[in-house]
Amino acid sequence: LKPFLVQQPPCVLMSDMASAILHVMTGYRLAEDPRNANELVSAIDRLVLENAEVQDILSGHVTQRTLLCVKACQAHAVDPSPKNRKRMRASWAKLNLSERFVITKLAVWQTDELRVWQLKVEAGQLEPLPVRRQKTSQTMPDIKSNRVRKDASGVQQSDGRGRKVISL
User: Fold this and answer.
1) Do 69 and 95 meet the contact criterion of CB atoms below 8 Å apart?
2) Which stretches of sequence are listed as region Disordered (predicted)?
3) Euclidean distance between CA atoms 154 and 159, whole angstroms
4) CA-to-CA distance for 58 and 54, rounded, in angstroms?
5) pLDDT for 141-159, tens place per residue?
6) What is the pLDDT of residues 13-56, one digit of tens each?
7) Distance, CA of 99 to CA of 109 (rounded, Å)
8) Which of 32, 34, 39, 121 satisfies CB 3.0 to 4.6 Å to 92 for a cystine?
9) Which residues contact 18 (CB under 8 A, 6 or more apart)?
């Protein structure tokens, strides 16, 4: 399944292209560091020690951009050299908004069980949960009907909507 992508207006695409060209020209020196990188590294390092599945995911060959960013943040935390900082910033700059949101969820918002689940989704081991949308109910309004056959005078009564009640 492909992630849901929002069509962006041309001005946004041009600004993204301009920032990409700027990053390439400056060697990502002007790029921003990932938000909550320290929290992300501490949470992922703890999960690697506690969970063998997470260790397998991150120790293998990774091709997903979100997992590449996680590994780049870990490498920068171990050795904060300019080369590792450049890799970390480059991996963060290449992420789109939904991928950055995944990194933020891994760093701050989720419990360890949900972090492991999200890492499995990113590694392709699990399918993401389908988006559930609530349907607006199309039911008829609840109208009280006064179903009375015929009264003593022989006049037929109507239901709550003003229609005659006909019995078959």
Assistant:
1) yes
2) 132-168
3) 16
4) 6
5) 555 555 545 556 666 666 6
6) 455 666 666 556 555 555 566 778 889 999 999 999 999 999 99
7) 15
8) 34
9) none
